[in-house]
């Protein structure tokens, strides 16, 4: 057997799974804290997910428990989540014991959008592939012909995304409060 047929033992194939091979998992959260939350003592709430789009702009993600989070409790959760991170960020808080909560947060690219999302639409995603192909999805459905307000919103998203990347995926999302957030990721 020639010497060049022997693989380098320190190189790991890409298919090896984290944990099984000794390769560490990628970090999921940028910050994790444990905090006493007396504001939520006595509440039946066990978890809450939220996004801080900008200072003072907080959105509870999903409807589960949204009505049970008092304003002062949400403010305390946001304070813990933003202790070491600046908005925009997403966070998840989970009750670990009576009054104790684990709060995990990570930065996101979502930001307030100066673009209006047409009525009846909760999510518009626009993607431009490196070859220039453009696709638009509205609430998960591919749209072939754009017209009216949808075309105007898609054009505004494309213009905003093109200012940052030549190939991209951009998402315009309406939150339960009616506010709209925009995220742009390169391809």
General description of the model:
- This protein is an alpha+beta fold.
- It has two domains: 77 residues, no CATH class; 76 residues, no CATH class.
- It has two helices and eleven strands.
- The two termini are 42 Å apart.
- The model has no long low-confidence stretch (mean pLDDT 79).
Secondary structure layout:
Layout (H helix, E strand, L loop, with lengths): L30 E6 L10 E8 L2 E4 L10 H11 L7 E9 L2 E8 L3 E2 L10 E6 L5 E5 L2 E3 L4 H15 L5 E7 L5 E7 L1
Antiparallel strand pairs: 1-5, 2-3, 2-4, 4-5, 6-11, 7-8, 7-10, 8-9, 10-11
Explain briefly what this protein structure is.
This protein is α+β, with helices and mostly antiparallel strands and 187 residues long. It contains two helices and eleven strands.
Strand content: 25-35%
Structural class category: alpha+beta
Biggest sheet record: 6 strands, antiparallel
Number of domain modules: 2
Describe the global form: globular
Order of helices and strands: EEEHEEEEEEHEE
What count of helical segments does DSSP give?
Answer: 2
Instruction: Tell me the span between the first and last alpha carbons.
Output: 42 Å
Strand arrangement, major sheet: 6-11-10-7-8-9
Number of strands: 11
Low-confidence stretches: none
Radius of gyration: 21 Å
Mean pLDDT: 79
- The helix content is 10-25%
